[in-house]
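Reviewer 2 asked us to include a model.

Predict the structure of this chain.
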Amino acid sequence: MNSLKKFTPVALAVVLVFAVSVFISQNTFASSIVDGANAARGSGQPAELFGNGGIITTITNVLLFIVGALSVIMLIFGGLRYVISGGNSTAVTAAKNTILYAIVGLVIAFLAYAAVNFIMTSLVPGSSAGFTNV
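Predicted model (structure tokens):
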């Protein structure tokens, strides 16, 4: 019973503060969720998820660029390994595998770009063909 006496004024104060804040916020801050989202978005940031300059398009472009760049770097690395292998059969095989996997990575990156581009242009309304440059 003693703990209930301590709890009651605190609970009453919390309910009172909540009720007052609800009544004040309804009259003072009559803005929509869209206004809040626009205020939270930084200047120069895209408002759309899809389409040219959209967030999804930008993320896809950056990821495809990274995968493509890593594939080219691994292709160069595999070529260097092949050149300095010195005729060692295990080193030559490892270098050829590196080159093969780098080419497979490039093909997958190009196919991913084509698939995402197809989806963005044909299934998402309001988007145009091609992505913006990264």
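The mean pLDDT is 75. The chain has two domains: 2-30, 55-122. We have added this to the supplementary material.
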